[in-house]
Amino acid sequence: MRVVVKLYGTLGQTFPGYQPSRGIEVNLPEEATVRDLLAHLGLPERAIVIVGGRVLPADAGLQNNAPVSIFQPIGGG
Amino acid sequence: MKLIRVNMTDKTIHTEDVPPEYAGLGGRGLSSVIINTEVPPRCDPLGPENKLIFAAGLLSGTTMPNTSRLSIGAKSPLTGGIKESNVGGMIAVAMGRLGIQAIIVEGQAPEGELYLLKIDGNGNASLIPAQEYKGMRTYPLVEKLLATYGKDYAVVCIGPAGEYKMPIASVQASDVDDRPCRAAGRGGMGAVMGAKGLKAILVDRRGKDGNPVADPEAFREAVKNLVQMIKSDPMNAEVMPNLGTAALVAPVNSMGGFPSYNARKGVLDGWENICGERMAEIIKERGGNPTHRGCDQCIIFCSNVYVDKDGKYVTSALEYETIWAMGGMTGITDLDVIARLDNLCDDIGVDTMSAGVAIAVAMDSGYRNFGDAAAAIEMMEEIGKGTEFGRILGGGGVAVGKHFNNPRVPAVKGQTIAAYDPRALLGLGVTFATSPMGADHTAGNVVGAYLTGMLDPLKPEGQVETSRFLQIAIAAYDTLGLCFMASVALLNPEAFEAVSKLIGAKLGQTLGPDEFPFGLGLRVLKAEREFNRRVGFTKEDDRLPRFFYEEPLPPHNTVFVIRDEELDSVFDF
Prior knowledge:
The complex is a heterodimer.
Chain A: E1 2-7, E2 24-27, H1 34-41, E3 48-51, E4 54-56, E5 67-71
Parallel strand pairs in A: 1-5
Antiparallel strand pairs in A: 1-2, 3-4, 3-5
Chain B: E1 2-7, E2 12-17, H1 27-38, E3 52-56, E4 70-75, E5 82-87, H2 91-97, E6 100-106, E7 115-119, E8 125-129, H3 138-149, E9 153-157, H4 160-163, E10 171-173, E11 182-184, H5 189-196, E12 198-204, H6 216-232, H7 234-243, H8 249-254, H9 276-286, E13 289-292, E14 303-307, E15 313-316, H10 320-328, H11 335-348, H12 352-364, H13 373-385, H14 388-393, H15 397-404, E16 411-412, E17 415-416, H16 426-434, H17 447-450, H18 463-480, H19 484-488, H20 493-507, H21 515-535, H22 546-550, H23 564-568
Parallel strand pairs in B: 1-6, 7-12
Antiparallel strand pairs in B: 1-2, 3-4, 3-6, 4-5, 7-8, 9-10, 9-12, 10-11, 13-14, 14-15, 16-17
């Protein structure tokens, strides 16, 4: 499956040439989970993944073509 | 440590040792306990019976970093209940180093009189007539004060809004660069200061070692341990120094909980233009500073300096809550406009959140269109000039809603909400409803539980417990003078134990396992709840406005579903 990932906080800085307006296109196996996506990108498992307005747990599955947003954990503001 | 009592009626000043009943308290705890003990609950908040407390944190002025918070408390003209609003900058550390735990301003100067309170390097306080500063905005005021009295002073002051006694008037504090850009915004503490006839307080920053530590060796060890914990927290290590609190714009919009267009939608169209990532880019491109210290003894650097296209200073720090109130709520998606509105708020001396929501309620009532930047600036200028409509705006969102007969005002106990919609982020609704302060986010900001994956924001389960835990812990940390960023890194049992050792070393006692944060936090909350009860607040005041229960919020199209009995169980102690 293919997902488009947008990175927030300082996560984009770890991917040279990252453009916030475009994000990153990632190809994953059909059954891939949030954990698989983070591992594929080399991001820590504590990263927060939001799809369709919901924060997804690590074992949640991903949908083909779904826009995925990834954040660093934030304790408040 | 000393208390300085300043009587504005007869201009007398008394210095006393902190009495036993207030011992071991600082910041919010001291302010709230003094108010509950000494202020008649049914007094006029803008009259002589009210007291205005400026309390340095228990640890302000020690070597513990990030303890530069000053708690400002009184009976609030906005909520009618107890209020503590805390601010960073330089002054709390300056007070602590002079051995001053709190300044208590009592009585009232005759109408038309205005004073400065100056505390010199020996801790001696004096009142100085300040007619020449009447009506001045805070930036020129602080510049003139420091030119007159020397650069070694930390300042808190009010702008024209405080002199007009507007219920959303702030007290502004000078930062590391001597700019009055840090605000004790909430609850109209600036109006109380204006009513007392006090324009500014100056405290000499050259004090040394005034805040005594009973066991310096153990204190040093505990500080070392806690510094490690604060610095290794991912939020404080990575996000805050690069984006500041504006980092929350993206995730809160992504969760559908960013109250937009006066809380008609949970996602702002064009939020990408005003998010923290974009803000940091703009600041860097223009030669501003995205990693600014802001407050004395800070090791996190969540502040920033926002500059215009020519690299000229506009404001510091541009924060999440301001971006939301002046951007999300008003539908303005231009950071340059939002930064200018932030500067106007600081200069005029009003809370950015309350002012932004007041403007948004006016827009929602058809006074102007959402997204109209010129109208927002014009409304801010009306507040600054004290025009008739400016005074309505200066009364906050509830006053504006009454003026236009618009019931869609997101407020609890008269105070409008912060940047989290209770319909999509249920736990924030619990905190807004039940905090003794009115709708206040710092009192127990559950967003951290969502953005660390601990809690689902849309499921009722766990919201009450999390809000309760946070409200108790934060009440305790607010008492120490520790800033919010450091506090959220220290919300686990290991950190609580380390902080207990720190307090024990400071006071020369051994704290029991239940004393911090629970014993201390509960003591503070009980005093605050008791004051509010004596004012006449009941559980019916611990509710959100009706539209949060009835009007679904897109995109999740949910309403606030925490039951009244569950809200009543938050402080069932």
